[in-house]
Amino acid sequence: MKKPLLVLFLFGTVSIFGQSTKSKNIKVAIPSYAKKPVPQNVNTYMGGFANSKNAALPFTEEAFKNALKFQDFTKLTDENGTPDFLFALNGLSIKDLNLTISRSKANETYSVSIVPKADAAIGILTMLNGESVHYNRIAVLPKADSQGKVIPVVLDFTFDEEEKYLTFANDEQAKGTPYLVEEYLRVNLGDNFLTEKLAPVLYEDYDIRSNTDFEKFYFIKDKKTEGLEDETKAKVADFEEMSTAFTNLEQLRAGKEQLQSYRTYWEEKLAVYDLSSKAGKKAGWGLIMNLYNVALMQEDFEAASKYIDMALETEEKKWITKGKRNDFNKHYERYVLNYDKDSGERIYSEGYTVDPILAKIAKKEAIQGNNVDKAVGYVIKDDGEKMEGKISMRFSPQEQEGGNIMDISGDTTAKRVTVTYVNAKGKTKNASLKCKEVSEIVIEDRVFEPVNPKKGVLKTSDAGLSGFNLNTTVFMERVHSGTGITLFKDLTGVDTYYFAIDGVKKAETASAEFFASCPALASRIEGGEFSVSEEDQIKIAKAYSNECK
Fold first, then answer.
1. How far apart are CA 342 and CA 330, in angstroms?
2. How many CB atoms neighbour CB 103 within 10 A?
3. pLDDT band at 399 (very low <50, low <70, confident <90, very high)
4. What DSSP state is assigned to residue 548?
5. Phi, psi (rounded to 5 degrees) for 323
6. 498, β-bridge pairs
């Protein structure tokens, strides 16, 4: 009995494993469709730099411009022209990196260990017809080993090169230069960042194109049919050579008939196999995947979907097929964003909704612009003493440039003024004064005073506690003084104004409740007569002086 069973087993093995597929990764052109369909009459584009102060990138602006190769738009080469699309890059600054600086006096060398902070990113601003519409961030991630342990990038250099990499406050305190940031990014991002990472982010959002990607194509390994493996393997190689001619979507669409000949070939081969048998499924699955890829290249979505369904029915390599089904669904969704699924006519968007993050960025930049850095002026102290010198005040949140040291004294934003002055001995000194030590600060025609505003606890930027009392007094700019009232601009925000009324402990923003003692003005405020503009806020202050006092 054993011999017949062995014969049956061997026969079964040949039947099951005599037919199968092998794969080869080849480069093919696959259509790609914009996630953000463009408005009509968008024809040109250009790239450029928009680096913030001390920001750096590891490539030139010209290299960035040359790396962008959209297929649906034309590159504007006239530097004086205005493109429809402008893509502006902002790099990293030293504030985006954590540094550990080591020095060997014996060897006269430095070693700087660098790890990017959690929010370090290269920013890409998209402008359409001169208006900012979108903002992308490409995270700059630390290098890591196979277990996920962070590996710092280390830059070594000699004492002779220190001025390129470091600036010194004194012999023991140093911080990195933009050049150091540039060199770090060059090492961290690698040589192909522009073409393989950055440009594809923009293509995915806006371009309709063909991308050259690696895809697996399959040939038959069939022990029962002599020469079939060589024939089908050669066909895959021939297909790869033919596909290299398609360098853009226009050429790919013009080559649909060429593609059809290969599709016909693989359909004929597929017809030979019984897809209800296990052996037929093994060989047939690979041929079906070839047909799916060709249909996708032809933009024949009905056929592509049919082939995926056929592949799923074989239950061969289900994890691959299910992944392909998900990829197809996303691909087709992008297609119907840009083309009518029935007529194939191009669909254009009515315009873009501006990314909310752009308003946050603009607000942050506006507040940073309020900072005062060594402006000539004077301070009148609370005791009447006048200090002349260069005035510095910070109204934007402080950004760390060094280690993560917690300041338990609380946030000092808008709570300190620094006066740089020359003392009687001719030495330059810095005096840091708190709000309670100052009566007013004068810089040319601008006047700043300490103001105690009424703010909700959650809106208060100060974290310093004195017992259970929260200190909210900050420096604000005085913009109008009238009878019984003074108007101040809060420079820690945008379009935020506070009214200080004589005899009232805290300053408040305009509201009917705050001006309840003057019913006529309160009614006008409640009725929405006044905007948040400085001009209208001054009108409120004048109305109070003229009508309510």
1. 18
2. 17
3. low
4. -
5. -65, -40
6. 488
The encoded tokens of residue 235 equal: 């066909």
307 pLDDT higher than 90: yes
Q: Amino acid identity, residue 165?
A: Y
CA dist 25 and 244 (Å) reads: 14
**Strand arrangement, sheet containing 153-158:** 97-104, 109-116, 153-158
- pLDDT for 470 equals 56
| Angstrom distances, CA of residue 219 to CA of 88, 284, 286, 290, 528 | 46, 10, 7, 9, 74
Pairing of strands 143-144, 150-151: antiparallel
Q: Residue 153 to residues 95, 99, 105: CA-CA distances in angstroms?
A: 16, 10, 22
Q: Which residues contact 395 (CB under 8 A, 6 or more apart)?
A: 367, 370, 371, 413, 414, 491, 492
Distance CA 138, CA 294 (A): 33
pLDDT at 477 over 60: yes
C-alpha count within 13 angstroms, C-beta hemisphere, residue 12:
6
> Which residues have CB under 8 Å from 530's CB, separation 6+?
510, 524, 536, 537, 539, 540
Query: φ and ψ at 272, to 5 degrees?
Result: -75, -25
| pLDDT per position as a tens digit, 154-205 | 999 999 999 999 998 776 788 899 999 999 999 999 999 999 999 999 999 9
pLDDT of residue 402 exceeding 50, the answer is no
pLDDT digits (tens, 9 = 90+) for 230-259: 999 999 999 999 999 999 999 999 999 999
- Residue pair 488/498 in contact by the 8 Å Cβ criterion: yes
d(CA 394, CA 82): 37
- Please provide the average confidence, as pLDDT, over all residues in the chain: 89
Q: Inform me whether the pLDDT recorded for 400 exceeds 60.
A: no
d(CA 477, CA 255): 68
CA-based nearest residue to 452, from 462, 442, 467 = 462
Residues across the chain: 549
d(CA 493, CA 474) in angstroms, rounded, equals: 12
Question: Under the phi-then-psi rule, with left for phi > 0, alpha for psi from -120 to 50, and beta for the rest, what region is 316?
Answer: beta
pTM greater than 0.85 (yes/no):
no
Helical spans, DSSP H, in 339-486: 356-368
CA 529 to chain centre: 39
Q: Please give the sequence-ordered ranges of beta strands (E in DSSP) within 55-108, or none if there are none.
A: 74-75, 85-90, 97-104
Q: What Rg value do the Cα atoms of the chain yield, rounded?
A: 34
Q: What is the rounded CA–CA span in Å between residue 475 and residue 394?
A: 10
- For residues 142 and 389, give the distance between their C-alpha atoms in angstroms, rounded to a whole number: 44
Q: How many CA atoms within 13 Å lie on the side-chain side of 278?
A: 7
Segment 361-384 shows an average pLDDT of 93
Judge whether 292 and 324 are in contact, CB under 8 Å: yes
CB 379 within 8 A of CB 438: yes
Q: What is the pLDDT of residue 56?
A: 96
Tokens linked to 126: 């998209």
Show the tokens assigned to 220: 């038959």
